[in-house]
């Protein structure tokens, strides 16, 4: 069995060099703290950046660095200062971070950042490829490495690759402003499984995939070439036992300086409440707003002056990024002003720490504070909220949490607030201060039970389980066999040996790709050459078989003398002759249906009606995908109620609904042709629902091929139109 390789920019430890010695200090941030517990329990290798640039690392220490990381089960990707600047401070934290947290005005779209991001992602991918085997499972983490899955996939097509995004995925309206939105999505889609903290982030991602890449999405499966990519939400948990046990041991251990100070504060003012806030100093955390809201609270309820104290622990973060420097200044000034204005001889309203504290100090703060007040404006998850609850071993304590944090979805028993609503926050603080202990305990019992059950280990196992199941789903769902090089060779052999061949080739989505305007999807020179070659072969009958109208196909192909069946089987033309009717059909119904379709065009921007001789098609490829599907299902209902028992039916094609006579379909037409001669090689290829009639009705000995990776009655499938051409090129060489 292969190993698991975890890959993220931040490793669980950061290396520092002082006086020629290497120190490993624990990393701050949800990803590193959460995954650390998963990593320490298993046989995984964790690849990431050590936190030191090449320039900061003397050569003679290279080996020592590798050894220090190895002790923690880690291996490094080396980055020089320029790479850290463009990739980490640049694209990751000046472009993606603000954009994904809805701070559009902070997002910088710099080509240099993007180029460095690509190059560094390639470095990470190369490190994985070097250190892994085909049977390993690769788990890529977070927004710094969104191109890695595709880069690894190219070299290791069979490896299981999972990706987890630890920050929000923004709505399509925000995401689409990114100049490199396609590349980012394609990078992520190299994965087999993509995980998010919440369903909302998942939903936003799927919407972008549909709208930007135009891929088919069914529930949470994305269909891309020959792969199905699964998307799901897995809310990350914490190492519950670790926090609970630390809190239990806390009382037994010798007191830290911080704890002494906290205790003396409590002793001197036993009826004051301590309100705690802990975050990295990041604008997404809403620290400045929280301080303003605190001032608002003290103004609204002055009776709480000298009765509450706000402890702010802000951990230094990304301090090379200008927005973080500005925020630092803003928070310093705010704290200074408020403390200056309202402190009394006995009371400082805000205690402000700007530093990273050790784990024990964190526990001191969690266990001593009566209230945790966390007000991110946007936060992928927010583990601090969960950690606070886990340390409340006597079940007291009140959590006030922003609705904008991913964790709010699972922590309904907390007091949820909108960080922009000062009025509500002031009232909630008052409520928290006065909340009876029984109520605190009842709320925390629910919260603790859930956190204990769905801890970080369960979270990681669920993700891994889904990743493993995912690979088997791909194998079972599709009975059609891929046209691999081996299969192609066999088909080709049969083709060469055949005495009489018959080929049915669908056009749109098979011989040619889709175009916004169907009239523009005309054949290219390469296609003509290819079809000419096949059509001129001895004992070979080629039919183009399409839902298109006879005028268009006449213009494109009549001079080439290809045989054609159009409008799904209404018309036939052989060897350059004029189109004749293949089926007797009526068209009177069209007068009745046309206005209905037109009313749908009026109400669905981007859609249009194509009028053929004996059918009407409503195309909705260019509409908003969700809206288009909704309208299509509405139209289906309207049409079915209108046509009743008439001889007409509605066909659901690829982004098109076609109303036509019931006795016409490609299967029926193909079978009629088949009866005309004695063929020993019958081949049909198509991408659409309408082609399924051929696949169903042609005899079992036929070779039927679906284009695309969807459920089909065909025996084989190919990934895309490019592969169709490769296949036909083989036939053309016979
Ligand atoms: P983010 O990942 O955005 O920083 P989270 O709240 O999800 O936010 O995660 C923060 C993590 O960092 C928590 O696991 C917390 O314990 C840890 N942490 C926060 N502050 C400190 C600190 N001062 N010292 C050590 N660890 C900290
Ligand atoms: C968030 C991100 C992580 C990141 C952490 C700390 O939790 O999701 O990927 O590691 O913040 O930020 P830093 O920039 O110090 O790695």
From TrEMBL:
A Pfam short name: Glyco_transf_20
GO molecular function: alpha,alpha-trehalose-phosphate synthase (UDP-forming) activity; trehalose-phosphatase activity
SUPFAM superfamilies linked: HAD-like, UDP-Glycosyltransferase/glycogen phosphorylase
Superkingdom of source: Bacteria
GO annotation, cellular component aspect: cytosol
GO biological process: trehalose biosynthetic process
Chain segments annotated as coiled-coil in the UniProt record: none
Transmembrane segments: none
Membership in a protein family: Belongs to the glycosyltransferase 20 family.
Protein name, entry field: Bifunctional alpha,alpha-trehalose-phosphate synthase (UDP-forming)/trehalose-phosphatase
Natural source organism: Flagellimonas ochracea
